[in-house]
């Protein structure tokens, strides 16, 4: 008999007296093995994947709502809820047919009218959806399983738009839910995917539970990311939110959780030493670190000042600050697109390569007219990645002789302040730090941060006609070669004008107990095909 | 006494109103925007603005404050901006874990700290006294999160006696409930035990010098009776006071402890709400906490009359 049993016996005896014999439900080993306990990257604070576009919401939603198409591990769109599609020769009319037997979690069949309502809501919020909406002539249900999207001009990336994993995804909801204003949150979570959301067990900030939907009809193909047969091999998936990484690490080692989505680099060596735990790269598409300079105000309204910073910037310094000394976790990125993906390009990336030339950078900065005015650098201290980058940037700017106004704050404040277009001294800013999921940087479609259309661009409001021209070229490209050529030119134009400063490409690990199998690498945690033994 | 309690309860209303105005104003002028957090990193400024409008955050201060006060007066704490759930329901979900943690910590503190303080006073100047006070200094000096990590490492990871994290409701059994609370309660209780032990010692030292203690000894009363019946009862007022103050400390400490031990309590809800700028939740929690503070103060005053019959209201 061990100490724990003794303690349990003693406390149990006291407890019986105090609680009148309340007892814990008997959970057999089999039941435990059918529940997968998962620690997500963040708190699931809301559960509307169109209204709230955070990755954690998208990741949970991918279990609960299915999509018409799904992106696979080769980054190709594959049919998912759709059985077949036809497009007219002029590329303007798409006719889609749904698979038979698709059901919502309330037992109702998935009909075309549900799809039309879902796509209408999605298109109001998604950047690609907005592009399609701008070209839309009509989106109508032809019959229960057929719907038609008629455009004024072709949109070659239609299937990619419907398949993409970038938030917001084109999730299919019942019509009554999808008719909710896209800027208001849904309250009904009846889904079309392989798992049901247990709303009654949801404790925002602490726990979310998903149960297997037994009437889900998976495709016959092997699952590959968001495509293929989404076979659920456990009864329940419990998301347990743990704000403290050390606690998550301890819980995984202790067998209290089965899978930790994003262990921090500092704790990975400890996990690797544990014989019961597997550790591997989670998302091969990784992340791109970045800081954005405000193109509206001095000194960074002058491209020479922006290029001076880029000339002096050492990506290695940034990457080591973010991921530590594990060189398997990062690589330099002389460009803007995700490494090891078809459109990756280094064209024009010389400015980020080789030995850093501070003398030349200082000279260029002086030519830009910089004369010591404060540079307001916003740094969110509650996000380890932005904090690490901010510290490196402050050092870099000081070495360049710049007067740094280092604003240490939290992410909520950065998120609000970066939207200010007022001068830096009046509530505005000169720089802020962030990072982009590599999955969002594989091409220009979901890549808001690369856009350089001035006032309509992302924060910093870069205005680079050359960059925008090549974005259009990519959308109009008819094959991969044309796409690659357009991206090469885009990469160069964006670096020449310094749309933003890429600080490098970095990966992160995921860790799980060895009694869990079927975990695949990807831009989000996929729960289909994952099983757990006792 | 009853009329005193009623007067005190009525007196809490203006306090609560001032707290409400203060909290609302503070949040209004604080930087940050929940619409930005909701919209996500890739959202356009137009999307953010539309979300802000849909949440009513673009309305003038007085309109927002007026509508909030109106709801409060109707017993409605509002709806969370992020979860779309009623704030009262969210607080209800989190109340159990925090209350459990506080009760266990409080019991642990009283059971450990008061006897330690009494013994230290009884053996004042001895090695035992020095050891106990040394522990008290140690308890004061160590941050809650450090103690928490140490305990989790030793008792959960190394010895495997207790779980690292989580919370199990009492309805699922006493041991599962207690098992999850032992380490957090010890971590949270360290400072509190140190504080109460020191105050108990100081109060007891003063009482033990009194003539009636000498008389009790002269009468031949046993040491236990003198210490715990005669002396402790007369030293109880400052001890009760510090226990009451300690409840306020516990609420603050629970924020850290709940994060370290992943307990889904009000402390974590507070932090999450602040980081996301979930105004209705922050306002609801602060109102609740201020009400608890006022209530605890009232309870302390009432307890004074029980331990010291000379006190009358």
Automatic annotation (TrEMBL), chain A:
Keyword field: Signal
Q: What SUPFAM superfamilies has UniProt attached to this entry?
A: Periplasmic binding protein-like II
What range does the record give for the signal peptide? Answer: none
Top-level division of the source organism's lineage: Bacteria
Localization, UniProt: Periplasm
Q: What is its main location?
A: periplasm
Assigned protein family: Belongs to the bacterial solute-binding protein 5 family.
User: What is the protein name given in its UniProt record?
Assistant: ABC transporter substrate-binding protein
TrEMBL record, chain B:
| Protein name per the record | Glutathione transport system permease protein GsiC
Membrane-spanning residues: 9-30, 99-122, 134-157, 177-197, 235-261, 281-307
Q: Which residues form the ABC transmembrane type-1 domain?
A: 95-304
Alphabetically, the GO molecular function entries are:
dipeptide transmembrane transporter activity
Q: Which domain of life is it from?
A: Bacteria
The record's GO CC annotations read: plasma membrane
Q: Which family does it belong to?
A: Belongs to the binding-protein-dependent transport system permease family.
| Major subcellular site | membrane
Q: Which source organism?
A: Bradyrhizobium forestalis
According to its UniProt entry, what is the function of this protein? Part of the ABC transporter complex GsiABCD involved in glutathione import. Probably responsible for the translocation of the substrate across the membrane.
Xref: PROSITE patterns? ABC_TM1
Alphabetically sorted, this entry's keywords are: Cell inner membrane, Cell membrane, Membrane, Transmembrane, Transmembrane helix, Transport
Topological category with respect to the lipid bilayer: Multi-pass membrane protein
Q: Which Pfam families match?
A: BPD_transp_1, BPD_transp_1_N
| Localization, UniProt | Cell inner membrane; Cell membrane
């Amino acid at each position: 008999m061990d100490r724990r049993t003794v303690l349990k016996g003693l406390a149990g005896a006291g407890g019986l007296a105090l609680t009148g014999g309340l007892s814990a439900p008997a959970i057999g080993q089999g039941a435990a093995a059918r529940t997968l306990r998962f620690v997500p990257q963040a708190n699931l604070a809301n559960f509307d994947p169109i209204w709230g576009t955070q990755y954690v919401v998208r990741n949970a939603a991918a279990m609960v709502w299915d999509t018409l198409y799904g992106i696979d591990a080769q980054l190709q769109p594959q049919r998912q809820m759709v059985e077949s599609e036809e497009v007219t020769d002029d590329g303007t009319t798409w006719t889609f047919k749904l698979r038979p037997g698709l059901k919502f979690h309330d037992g109702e069949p998935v009909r075309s009218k549900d799809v039309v309502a879902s796509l209408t809501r999605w298109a109001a919020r998604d950047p690609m959806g907005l592009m399609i909406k701008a070209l839309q002539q009509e989106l109508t249900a032809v019959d229960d399983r057929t719907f038609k999207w008629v455009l004024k001009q072709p949109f070659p990336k239609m299937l990619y738009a419907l398949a993409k994993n970038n938030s917001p995804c084109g999730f299919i909801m019942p019509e009554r839910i999808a008719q909710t204003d896209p800027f208001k949150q849904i309250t009904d979570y009846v889904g079309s995917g392989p798992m049901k959301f247990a709303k009654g067990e949801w404790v925002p900030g602490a726990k979310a539970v998903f149960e297997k939907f037994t009437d889900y009809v998976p495709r016959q193909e092997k699952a590959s990311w968001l495509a293929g047969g989404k076979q659920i091999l456990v009864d329940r998936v419990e998301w347990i939110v743990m704000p403290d990484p050390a606690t998550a690490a301890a819980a995984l080692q202790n067998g209290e959780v089965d899978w930790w989505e994003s262990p921090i680099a500092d704790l990975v060596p400890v996990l690797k030493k544990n014989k019961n735990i597997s550790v591997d790269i989670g998302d091969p598409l990784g992340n791109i670190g970045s800081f954005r300079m405000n193109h509206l105000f001095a000194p960074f309204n002058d491209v020479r000042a922006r290029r001076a910073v880029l000339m002096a910037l050492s990506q290695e310094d940034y990457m080591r600050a973010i991921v530590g000394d594990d060189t398997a976790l990062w690589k330099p990125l002389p460009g803007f697109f995700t490494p090891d993906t078809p459109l990756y390009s280094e064209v024009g990336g010389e400015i980020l390569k080789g030995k850093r030339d501070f003398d030349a950078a200082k000279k260029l900065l002086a030519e830009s007219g910089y004369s010591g005015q404060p540079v307001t650098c916003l740094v969110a201290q509650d996000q380890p990645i932005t904090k690490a980058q901010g510290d490196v940037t402050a050092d870099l700017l000081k070495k360049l002789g710049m007067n740094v106004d280092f604003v240490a704050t939290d992410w909520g404040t950065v998120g609000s302040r970066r939207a200010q277009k007022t001068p830096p001294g009046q509530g505005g800013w000169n720089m802020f730090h962030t990072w982009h999921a590599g999955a969002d940087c594989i091409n220009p479609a979901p890549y808001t941060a690369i856009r350089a259309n001035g006032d309509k661009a992302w924060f910093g409001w870069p205005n680079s006609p050359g960059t925008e021209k090549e974005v259009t070229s990519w959308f109009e490209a008819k094959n991969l070669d044309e796409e690659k050529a357009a991206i090469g030119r885009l990469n160069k134009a964006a670096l020449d004008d310094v749309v933003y400063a890429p600080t490098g490409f970095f990966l992160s690990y995921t860790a799980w107990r060895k009694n869990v199998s079927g975990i695949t690498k990807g831009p989000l945690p996929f729960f289909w095909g994952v099983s757990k033994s006792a | 006494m009853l009329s005193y309690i009623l007067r005190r309860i009525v007196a809490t209303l203006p306090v609560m109103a001032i707290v409400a105005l203060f909290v609302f104003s503070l949040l209004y002028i604080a930087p940050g925007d929940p619409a930005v957090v909701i919209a996500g990193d890739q959202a356009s400024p137009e999307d953010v603005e539309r979300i802000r409008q849909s949440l009513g955050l673009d309305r003038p201060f007085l309109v927002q404050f007026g509508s909030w006060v109106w709801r409060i007066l109707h017993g409605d704490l509002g709806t969370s901006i992020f979860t779309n759930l009623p704030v009262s329901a969210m607080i209800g979900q989190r109340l159990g874990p925090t209350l459990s943690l506080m009760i266990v910590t409080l019991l642990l503190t009283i059971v450990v700290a008061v006897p330690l303080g009494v013994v230290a006073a009884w053996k004042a100047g001895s090695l035992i006294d020095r050891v106990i006070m040394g522990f008290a200094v140690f308890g004061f000096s160590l941050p809650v999160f450090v103690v928490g990590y140490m305990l989790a490492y030793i008792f959960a990871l190394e010895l495997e006696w207790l779980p690292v994290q989580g919370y199990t409701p009492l309805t699922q059994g006493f041991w599962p409930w207690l098992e999850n609370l032992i380490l957090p309660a010890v971590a949270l209780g360290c400072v509190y035990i140190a504080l109460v032990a020191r105050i108990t010692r100081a109060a007891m030292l003063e009482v033990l010098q009194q003539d009636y203690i000498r008389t009790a000894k002269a009468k031949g009363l046993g040491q236990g009776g003198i210490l715990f019946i005669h002396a402790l009862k007369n030293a109880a007022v400052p001890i009760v006071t510090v226990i009451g103050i300690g409840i306020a400390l516990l609420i603050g400490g629970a924020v850290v402890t709940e994060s370290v031990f992943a307990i889904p309590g009000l402390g974590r809800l507070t932090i999450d709400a602040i980081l996301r700028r979930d105004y209705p939740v922050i306002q609801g929690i602060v109102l609740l906490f201020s009400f608890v503070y006022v209530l605890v103060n009232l309870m302390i005053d009432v307890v004074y009359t029980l331990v010291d019959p000379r006190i009358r209201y």
